[in-house]
Write a structure and sequence with these properties.
Length: 184
């Protein structure tokens, strides 16, 4: 009885070691896909940190990596839209500021919708449409910036400039990943 228990434990230890070795090999193979994919983008460090923040990236293919980045971009656009909506409420006395902030909140909302559309395009492997939606999402912040330019008395908020830059960069990362998929 003692020898069968020892044998079972030994077999379990061997099985666990094999699984760990296989997992390490699997993770390093997927890690190299992430590195290769990110090297095809303009913002390697942003790509790497974004993908490393999502544990599903280790099991994703190129299309899956693009979808992960799109979801991060969608979160950015949605959070910025919410941020701008809250700013509308705090600018109750300035009609122009209220108008511009509302317009900007709408533009970032549209960016989020375009990014959602690109997820559907990715799923359908319609990479040209995904590219178009992501390009549109990256351009919506320009419309917001232009809205501020129409009212020279309104300063473009530094926080909004930071968020605009972040969205554009993350969209550039997705576009780089799409280019690396070889769909064209």
């Amino acid at each position: 009885m003692g020898s069968s228990t020892t044998s079972a434990r030994f077999s379990l230890v061997i099985l666990l070691l094999l699984l760990l070795v296989q997992h390490d090999h699997f993770a390093s193979a997927d890690s190299s896909l992430i590195q290769k994919t990110c090297k095809a983008t303009k913002y390697y460090a942003l790509c790497m940190s974004s993908l490393k923040s999502d544990p599903t990236s280790l099991t994703a293919d190129g299309k899956g990596l693009a979808a992960i980045i799109v979801r991060i971009a969608t979160t950015n656009a949605t959070a910025t839209s919410s941020y701008l909506s809250s700013q509308v409420l705090s600018s109750a006395n300035d009609a122009n500021a209220k108008k511009v902030l509302k317009e900007c909140a709408d533009k970032y909302g549209y960016a989020g919708e375009a990014l959602q559309g690109s997820l559907q395009d990715l799923a359908a492997e319609s990479y040209d449409y995904a590219y178009m939606h992501i390009t549109a999402a990256a351009d919506y912040p320009n419309a917001c910036h232009n809205a501020f330019r129409r009212y020279p008395a309104l300063a473009y908020p530094p926080e909004l400039a930071r968020r605009e830059d972040a969205l554009k960069r993350i969209c550039d990362v997705v576009l780089g990943i799409l280019d690396s998929l070889g769909w064209d």
